[in-house]
Amino acid sequence: MLTSSGERETTSSKKVVVCGGGVIGVCTAYYLSKLGATVTLIEQSSIACAASGKAGGFLALDWCDNGPVSSLARASFNLHRSLSSDLDGPSSYGYRPLTTLSVIVNEFTPVKPGPRGVLPDWVDGSAQEGKQIGSDQSTAQVHPGLFTKRLMTEAVDKYGAEVVIGKVGVVEVGEEGRVKAVVLSDGRVVEADSVVLALGPWSSKMVMLSSLFRVYGMKAHSIVLEPISKEPALISAHALFLSYFQSPGDRPLDPDVYPRPTGEVYICGMSSTEEVPDNPEEVLPYPDSIKTLKRVAENVSSHLKEGNAQVIAEQACFLPCTDDGNPVIGELPGSKGCFVATGHSCWGILNGPATGAALAELVVHGQTSIVDLSPFSPSRFVVTGKRR
Ligand SMILES: Cc1cc2nc3c(=O)[nH]c(=O)nc-3n(C[C@H](O)[C@H](O)[C@H](O)COP(=O)(O)OP(=O)(O)OC[C@H]3O[C@@H](n4cnc5c(N)ncnc54)[C@H](O)[C@@H]3O)c2cc1C
């Protein structure tokens, strides 16, 4: 909003410390600073160093319908579209609408010759059949790492937010249970009127959170390949959700394949619940899981076979998961001015913008207009002050 002198109206003079530089912390920092708050974001490693840099970046309007996340997802899908027209300029983060297919791939059955229905030409491997499950109106994508970094740059350059690299130790709570400061593990102290904890799968490492609810990590793998052929538009804008059978009678694997506008193809899958290491740089992929994803790639498309494609990345990261499968967003019971935003599981890139925009409103104005956050309140886990 502009004042009569044409300057941006400062709607808040609050000093807010956001802990965690993943997509959730960064979106919250972006919208808080847009509302005029003085924002310091503290990240232990680098912006988007974890899942927010290694995710697929797939977005869907209505895939969370009929559940508590429905309105958050719908609002966020639309915010992604408007953010892309504001921010996805020359230093592009690759927002684009997509057609999305579910595809059955069967390694052991010869592919029938003849028309292949909805399957695009580059899906020329062992895919047996495909069905459209999303259109360019209902599904889209971003490059998650570039998106997260772009938003943080905007928050810093345009709205004056600050990034501090350091590990958050504890949140100091003063008299009457109100937050006062964040203390880093090297002893630095950053004073705060409000604090937002957006620590992803590391949330449970803070007693302040783990005493109230559990966030556990699900490790998942991904590879990024780039076909060597520079034929223009070789790989079309089709996201593929696979049911992938390696041998008859086996349970199928369910990897996803997301071509990017740069010509790169991202493939992810192979997940398991595991302890999250303290340092995000220590999250390494298992060679067998990477081998399986490469086998998937070459059975989907000859353009992704060894020799026809360059390997750009082999990586792993952790999804932040909660016991009821829903995100936790809101003020912590018993700690005034201390907010949490985590547990977005496999939809954090989609739901980052609406989470950040609504939480920023809650911190600054005490209420939200963009989406009702009450279904995500941390209070749902708490019975008379103790973890349920
Ligand atoms: C393989 C894979 C594919 C995915 N694909 C998609 C997709 O297509 N679409 C989608 O919507 N979602 C997808 N997701 C999910 C999405 O990536 C996550 O939900 C989202 O990135 C979580 O963001 P976050 O900010 O909560 O956590 P993170 O990205 O993990 O960020 C948390 C940050 O907090 C920092 N931190 C932790 N502890 C401290 C501390 N003590 N001090 C300072 N900093 C700290 C960490 O270093 C990290 O940078 C995918 C996830 C995976 C694993």
Textual characterization of the structure:
With 388 residues, this protein is of the alpha+beta class. It has two domains: 209 residues, FAD/NAD(P)-binding domain; 143 residues, D-Amino Acid Oxidase, subunit A, domain 2 (D-Amino Acid Oxidase, Chain A, domain 2, 2-Layer Sandwich). It contains seven helices and 21 strands. The strands form five sheets. A seven-stranded mixed sheet has the order 6-5-14-15-16-13-17, covered by helices on one side. Helix 1 packs parallel to helix 7. The longest helix has 18 residues. The radius of gyration is 22 Å and the shape is elongated. The protein starts with 14 loop residues before the first strand and ends with a strand. The site of flavin-adenine dinucleotide has 41 residues, from helix 1, strand 2, helix 2, strand 13 and strand 17.
Please state the CA-atom Rg, rounded to the nearest Å.
22 Å
Distinct small-molecule ligands in the complex = flavin-adenine dinucleotide
Task: Please write the CATH class name of the largest domain.
Answer: Alpha Beta
Largest sheet: 7 strands, mixed
Q: What's the number of domains? A: 2
How does CATH name the architecture of the largest domain?
3-Layer(bba) Sandwich
Order of strands across the main sheet:
6-5-14-15-16-13-17
What would the average pLDDT be, to the nearest integer? 92
